[in-house]
Recover the amino acids of this structure.
């Protein structure tokens, strides 16, 4: 499958208006607030059904917020006289342990279908959230050309988003559609996700509560942990991507859960041993690591945070009384 399309000549210097689906969620809320900070005069509209998003993530947001499932939005009617500079489609059921196949695929795919069919009217640039979960089990660095191998309904739904994006781009090669395969994102405003939040946040919560950090047996599962600030920067940069396509967004490196525990112990001045337990999830990815060379070339993506600096920045935010005291 060819995942890269026509080369563009120009870029968007400024965003005057933007739509963010899933804007009260983890990535969506960080994106909305950063977009607002970069373009103070822009009109930012959020759509979220608040099944998993949290209104507290939007403290300081001064745009519009539409509470609606995407299936009920009727975007072509509600926005019939509105033109956005960009659409960021982040709405999704992100809990990979939700095994209701109908709900996962219907909500994730049909919501995207409505957005992309409506956006086609004006060829509005669409940036959407794909996922590293599409790769399934692997033991080597993941490249965009690697065939998908979804191991659960969530991953399957993201493969279908990628398929739809390719289909619409083949029919409209001048249109800008960019899929971002986010790897293991962590950072501020993820607490509302509970057990679906990053391992970094979950281990932090356990340790500050005086409990030994619980990780799967031997702790050598490896993840490409990517900090939310890098993810937001990549997502905004994708509006100016030189080619439509589907790109990996990770740190480009992998670290084990044991590494995370060691960094947290050092940062929190603790010495807690890991409490190992058997992994109950047969679909679990034991290894993720992104090849980010295509995103570097076509999106201009260059992550600024390694795992150490990302965790340090995150802990500073948590320890300043933001969301660190929320219960999961």
């Amino acid at each position: 499958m060819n995942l890269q399309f026509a080369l563009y000549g120009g870029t968007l210097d400024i965003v005057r208006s933007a739509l963010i689906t899933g804007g009260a969620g983890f990535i969506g809320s960080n994106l909305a607030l950063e977009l607002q900070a970069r373009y103070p005069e822009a009109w930012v509209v959020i759509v979220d059904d608040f099944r998993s998003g949290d209104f507290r993530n939007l403290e300081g947001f001064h745009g519009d917020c539409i509470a609606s499932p995407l299936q009920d939005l009727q975007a072509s009617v509600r926005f019939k006289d509105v033109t956005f500079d960009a659409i960021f489609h982040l709405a999704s059921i992100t809990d990979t342990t939700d095994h209701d196949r109908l709900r996962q695929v219907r909500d994730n795919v049909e919501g995207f279908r409505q957005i992309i069919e409506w956006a086609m009217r004006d060829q509005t640039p669409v940036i959407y959230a794909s996922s590293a979960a599409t790769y399934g089990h692997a033991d080597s660095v993941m490249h965009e050309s690697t065939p998908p191998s979804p191991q659960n309904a969530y991953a399957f739904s993201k493969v279908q988003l990628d398929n739809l994006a390719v289909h619409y781009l083949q029919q409209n090669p001048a249109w800008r559609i960019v899929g971002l395969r986010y790897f293991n994102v962590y950072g501020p405003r993820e607490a509302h996700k509970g057990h679906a939040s990053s391992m970094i946040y979950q281990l932090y919560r356990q340790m500050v509560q005086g409990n030994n950090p619980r990780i799967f047996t031997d702790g050598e599962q490896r993840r490409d942990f990517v900090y939310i600030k890098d993810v937001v920067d990549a997502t905004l940069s994708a509006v100016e991507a030189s080619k439509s396509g589907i790109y990996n967004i990770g740190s480009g490196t992998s670290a084990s859960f044991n590494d995370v525990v060691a960094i947290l112990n050092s940062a929190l001045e603790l010495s807690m041993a890991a409490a190992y337990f058997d992994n109950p999830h047969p679909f679990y990815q034991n290894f993720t690591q992104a090849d980010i060379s295509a995103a570097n070339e076509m999106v201009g993506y260059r992550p600024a945070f390694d795992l150490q600096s990302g965790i340090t920045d995150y802990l500073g935010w948590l320890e300043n009384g933001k969301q660190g005291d929320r219960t999961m």
In short: The chain has a mean pLDDT of 91. The radius of gyration is 19 Å. The CA atoms of residues 52 and 193 lie 7 Å apart.
